[in-house]
Amino acid sequence: MTEQKAAFVDGTLSTGIAAGIFFVTRGGIGGGEFGPYLADSFFVLILAGFLIKEPVSIIKESLIELAGGTLQDDNKRETFEQAVYSSIPETMQVEDIFVSKNGSQYVLLVYVSTSEAAYLKKDILSARDKILEKLSKEHPYLSLDLIPEGKPAIE
After folding, report:
1. Which of the two residues, 97 and 74, has the higher pLDDT score?
2. Whose CB among 97, 107, 134, 151 lies 3.0–4.6 Å from 83's, allowing a Cys bridge?
3. Comparing C-alpha atoms, which of 51, 76, 58 is closest to residue 2?
4. In 82-141, which ranges are E strands?
5. 13-34 burial, b if ≥16 CB within 10 A, otherwise e?
6. Given pLDDT bands bounded at 50, 70 and 90, which one contains residue 109?
7. For the chain, give me the number of helices (H) and strands (E)?
8. Which runs of consecutive H residues, i.e. helices, occur in 26-66?
9. Torsions phi, psi of 23, nearest 5?
10. Quick check: pTM over 0.70?
């Protein structure tokens, strides 16, 4: 995504500079002897002012990722949540889902609870396997933990 945004900014700046040069060479700017020399700089400054949002968003997302914050991509988060909710057995309920991204690795923590006296270990393991099966094709570097709330797990 960073490369995509960088290419967008570069392309927009190049297009703006080309338009500025075209405008200057066609006599659109008078201003005496300094007009043609400064026009390029003015166009770059104006375009950079409009495009400042892109680099700032890249830096913000990178800082959140480095700090171990929650995933910022809502579509990706929705994919993870759908895989979790469709894989959890009826004996367990999802209390919370934490999704983080660090580099190319995704960290998925699923907090579950149950109304039963204890968790069945096979339910937790089968739910984990189902979630990994659904997500591992698109996300080979996925760390998944199901964290049961307060009750013991039995065989």
Report:
1. 97
2. 134
3. 58
4. 92-102, 105-114, 119-120
5. eeebbeebeeebeeeebeeeee
6. very high
7. 5, 5
8. 35-51, 53-66
9. -65, -45
10. no
Domain ranges of the chain: 2-66, 74-154
Please, are residues 68 and 100 in contact by the beta-carbon 8 Å criterion?
Answer: yes
Q: Tell me which H or E stretch contains 34.
A: none
Q: How far apart are CA 149 and CA 152, in angstroms?
A: 9
d(CA 59, CA 78): 23
Both tokens assigned to 67: 């700090």
Identity of the amino acid at 99: V
Q: Domain 74-154 is classified in which CATH homologous superfamily?
A: Cation efflux protein, cytoplasmic domain (3.30.70.1350)
Q: Which of 77, 53, 72 is CA-nearest to residue 61?
A: 72
On whether the CB atoms of residues 64 and 99 are closer than 8 A, the answer is no
Closest CA to 88 of 59, 129, 141, 118: 129
